[in-house]
Specification:
With 398 residues, the protein is of the alpha/beta class. The chain has twelve helices and eleven strands.
Length: 398
């Protein structure tokens, strides 16, 4: 298997842009129509994922150690789409047909053998990982919605109860899908683990978001949803040790931050926690009752609300990080940031300019479509190669 030949051929194919995934999925669905049900009705995002994932695999084809971990995550994660071992040959056929189509006269027997061998290894690693994951977690958990509260036109707070325990740690994210929607989106529970196993989810309906819109507008108490295994370590408190904390949140990015506050309370530690919660206007503080209750319950927690828009200063917008840095020097603390792309990017850049080092600033480095652990790795590395860290929270349909 010639790695250089694989990379060169893929660069030629990828140059055809959106035509590549369109041809691939058309070929797959025509030859194997039973696979169509595993994919969402709207395939726009799926087309991007295919190209990104293949690009990541080919670019690391000569770095086996890095590639194996990515493929293992991908194989385990794909169980939630009901992907089984018998589906892999169908995908391989469609992939080779797609490569042959776009390479045309440059498609040779040697190149066909290289790609067949490469895909064989990919499929083997993914299938073995999926089989190993079966011994640890199910493909998904079924959960019942036991509470559904509309806090704003486009925001709902849901409490769901899995049929059996779904272990997670505060700051992690859990895949959520409604049975009527063949898509998954990841949300961070807004609570530390509870004795009854329930999870609190803060969901903002994203424009065109099939999952988030269904959860906000089309779900009710008694409905069932599917939950996938928790992922993510960037927002875990373990990296902060016993340090005092500065927490910066905006929008539904408050959800994982709320879970971190509950974790500190459960630990009974003596660390100090200063929380800055930002919004454009006072009406957007959709969970203020819970925030105020936490502030009044714990002497170690100080809460500051930051209203970004000021009618007396049109055109200016103050974010949580701006107010926090104006209030004091927090460089002895670990900082956790969660919110929209713009909020996180602004906070990380502002903190870096103020002398905060990378190891003390914690945020999720994600792409614009947060698909799963392996997808996140591919998007993050691809984005870092272009423009620096990619960050997303609300846009991943939190």
């Amino acid at each position: 298997m010639d790695a250089a030949r694989l990379k060169q051929s893929w660069s030629l194919v990828a140059g055809h842009g959106d035509e590549v995934p369109l041809y691939f999925y058309s070929t797959l669905f025509l030859a194997h129509p039973e696979t169509r049900q595993m994919f969402p009705t709207n395939m726009a995002g799926q087309r991007d994922r295919l190209v990104t994932a293949l690009g990541h695999i080919v670019s690391h084809v000569d770095q086996v150690d890095r590639l194996v971990g990515f493929l293992q995550d991908l194989g385990a994660d794909h169980r939630k789409f009901a992907v089984r071992a018998e589906h892999y040959p169908a995908v391989g056929e469609a992939l080779l047909a797609t490569l042959q189509h776009f390479l045309a006269e440059q498609w040779t027997d040697e190149l066909a053998q290289d790609w067949a061998a490469a895909y064989g290894l990919i499929a083997q690693v993914m299938m073995e990982a999926a089989q190993a994951a079966e011994a640890v977690n199910p493909p998904w958990w079924v959960a019942e919605i036991v509470a559904h509260e509309r806090r704003a036109f486009d925001v709902a707070v849901l409490t769901v109860r899995p049929q059996y325990l779904l272990p997670f740690t505060p700051g992690q994210s859990i895949g959520v899908s409604h049975p009527s929607v063949r898509s998954w989106r990841y949300y961070s529970p807004a609570n530390a683990p509870r004795a009854d196993g329930t999870l609190e989810l803060h969901v903002r309906a994203a424009p065109g978001g099939a999952v988030s819109s269904r959860l906000v507008y089309g779900s009710a108490v008694g409905d069932r949803v599917h939950l996938a295994a928790p992922v993510g370590e960037r927002l875990g408190l373990w990296a902060a040790g016993s340090s005092d904390l500065l927490l910066l949140a905006s929008g539904t990015g408050w959800a994982p931050v709320k879970a971190l506050v509950e974790q500190v309370a459960a630990e009974g530690s003596r660390r100090r926690v200063d929380l800055y919660v930002g919004a454009r206007s006072p009406s957007e503080f959709y969970d203020s009752d819970a925030i105020d209750k936490l502030a009044s319950s714990f002497a170690w927690l100080t809460v500051t609300y930051v209203v970004g828009a000021d009618v007396h200063r049109p055109g200016e917008f103050v974010q949580a990080v701006d107010r926090a840095l104006a209030d004091g020097d927090w460089r002895s603390r670990h900082v956790y940031v969660c919110g929209s792309d713009e909020m996180v990017s602004h906070a990380v850049q502002t903190l870096a300019r103020a002398g905060y080092h990378e190891g003390q600033v914690h945020h999720e480095g994600l792409g614009t479509q947060w698909y799963g652990p392996a997808w996140r790795t591919a998007v993050q590395q691809s984005s870092e190669g272009r423009t620096g860290p990619a960050v997303a929270n609300e846009r991943r349909e939190r």
